[in-house]
Amino acid sequence: MLRFDPIPYPLWRRKGLGLARPLLRAFTAADADSLGGGNVPDTPARMADYLARRGILPPGLNAVDTRDALAAINPPYETVFGQKQPASAPANVALRLPAQWERMEAIIVGFPVLYPMFWETHAQMIEAISQVARADVMLPDAAWAGAVWLYLEKRALAKLDNVRLLVLATDDVWVRDYGPFTGFLPDGSRAMLAATYDPLPAYPQANDDSMPIRYAAHEEVPLRSFDLHTEGGNFWSDGAGTLIASEGIYTRNPHLSRLEVERRLKLAFAHDKLIVTPSLWREETGHVDLLCKLADARTILITAPRVPLNSRALRQTYKIFRRATNAAGDPYAIFTLPALPPYLNWGAFPVWRSYTNALTVNGRVLVPVFKAATDDQALGVYKAAMPDHEIIPIKCAPTANGGGAVHCLTKEVPAG
Fold first, then answer.
1. What is the pLDDT of residues 48-99, one digit of tens each?
2. Predicted TM-score of the model (pTM)
3. CATH number of the domain that residue 191 is part of
4. Which of 68, 112, 277, 345 makes an SS bond possible with 349, Cβ 3.0 to 4.6 Å?
5. How far apart are the C-alpha atoms of 41 and 45, rounded to whole Å?
6. Is residue 271 part of a domain?
C-alpha cells in the first residue's frame, strides 16, 4: 500500500540536501525552528499566526482571540540549563531498571511544536498521564510555553497542576530513545544512565544525546554514561531480573562481539536473564517495543504473525516466549494482538504500526490506535491481559509515519 502522509522528521536539517532545502522550507515548519536556521514565533501575533496557518489553534479560539490570550497568559515553566553537571552515579554498579507497572513519579514527553499533526496525540498523552503522574513536557524554547499551555488549558482535559513545562532543547520528540534510563542502586536510591544516542547520522543529534545529562542535573539525580550505542525503545524490564531486547542491540554495536555487548549490559542493568527477539525486517528502529509488550512479569502481548514480510520474525518471537521463562522461572502467558498491514510512505519509508507500542503508568495503559478496523479488537485484548488497568486509546495514526507511537514518545521516571 502506498501513501503520501506528512513525514514527521526535521527534513530541512538533513545533511546534503543542496537545492532541495529551500523547497522543504516552503512546505514544513522549518521557519519556526531555531535549531534549523529559522526564527521561533516569539510574539503573541507571530505565534497566533503560526498556530492558525498550521491548523492548531486552541479549541474555541480564532487567531485574534489566540493572540490576545497569549498576550495575557503567564505560563509556568522551568529552564533547564546546560552548564550544570549532575552528580556522578557509581561506576560499575548496575541499576535495577523497574518495570513499567511499578509506581511512576513522572513521564517525560517532548512537545512536537514543529509537527502540527502530532499536537492532538501529545495532548491526549499529557491528559492521560497528568491524572495519575506528573507530565514533564519538554519545549525547545520558552517562546512555545504560552502556546502549549493555552492549547492544553482550552482542551480542559489535563490536570494542569501535574503538568510541568521544561525548556530543554532537543533535536526531536522521540524521548524514549534518548531519554535517561532511571533505576535504583543497591541501596534503593535513584540514579540515571545515559547510552550513546547516534542512530541517524544524516541528522544532528547532539542535543538529544546530551538530554539525559541536563535532565539529571535539573532533577539532582546522579547519572553516569554507559558505553553502548542503543535506544530505550529496545528494552523491556520486569524489574525482577529479566531484560528483553531485540537483535538490534547487537546490530547497533557492530564493533563489539555479542559477548561484549552482553557484558556491558550487565554492567548497566541488573538482570539475571536476557531474552533476545528478532528485529522486524525493513523497520528502521529495530526495537523490541514494536514486537511485544510486557503486561506483568508473567504476561506478554505479542503482535500476531499475520502480516507479509515480517510474519517469520513475529512467529519466532511467539515461539521464544512460548518456551521461555522469566528470571524467576515462571512461564509466560501470551496474548496476541492484531497485526496491521505495513504501507510505504512516499514510496521510500516502510511504516510498521504496532499496538505493542504502549505505555503503562500508575494503573493506566495508553494504547496507540490508528483509525483501523482492528483498534477495538486490540483494546479488548489489553482489557483481557491487564484487567486491573484502565485502558486509554491514544490517536497515533500520524506518529506511525515517524516510526513509533505512545511508547516511543514517552519516558518514565520511577518514584523514589
1. 999 999 999 999 999 999 999 999 999 999 999 888 899 999 998 999 999 9
2. 0.97
3. 3.75.10.10
4. 345
5. 8
6. yes
Burial group, residue 22, by CB count within 10 angstroms (0-12, 13-18, 19+): exposed
Using CA atoms, how far apart are residues 382 and 335, in angstroms rounded to an integer?
Answer: 8
| Residues 109 and 62 grouped into a single domain | no
Is there a domain that residue 13 lies in? yes
- The answer to whether residues 64 and 128 belong to one domain is no
Distance CA 194, CA 182 (A): 9
Please answer whether residues 165 and 173 qualify as being in contact, where contact means their C-beta atoms are separated by less than 8 angstroms: no
Phi and psi angles of residue 377, each rounded to the nearest 5 degrees, phi first = -60, -45
Which residues have a Cβ under 8 Å from the Cβ of 33 and sit 6 or more positions away? 10, 12, 13, 40, 114
Residue 44, SS3 per DSSP: helix
Terminal Cα-to-Cα distance of the chain (whole angstroms): 47
Contact 24, 12 (CB under 8 A): yes
Give residue for cell 536476557. Answer: 274
Same domain, 31 and 120: no
The Cα-based distances of 331 to 24, 222, 358, 407 in angstroms read 51, 36, 22, 25
Got the DSSP string for 307-322? STTTHHHHHHHHHHHH
Together in a domain, 159 and 249: yes
Helical (H) or strand (E) element with 364: strand 364-369
Residue ranges in the chain modelled with pLDDT below 70: none
Q: What's the CA gap between 62 and 73, in Å, rounded?
A: 16
Cell 529479566, residue?
242
For 32, residues 6+ apart whose C-beta sits below 8 A from its C-beta are 38, 39, 40, 41, 50, 113, 114
The backbone region for 188, taken as left when phi is positive above 0, alpha when psi lies in -120 to 50, beta otherwise, is: left
pLDDT tens per residue, range 96-124 = 999 999 999 999 999 999 999 999 999 99
Domain span including residue 61? 2-75
Q: Quote the number of domains for the chain.
A: 2
Are both 49 and 182 inside the same structural domain?
no
| One-letter amino acid of 165 | L
State how beta strands 163-167 and 78-79 pair. parallel
The pLDDT value given to residue 393 = 98
Q: Is residue 92 part of a domain?
A: no
Q: Are residues 125 and 21 in the same domain?
A: no
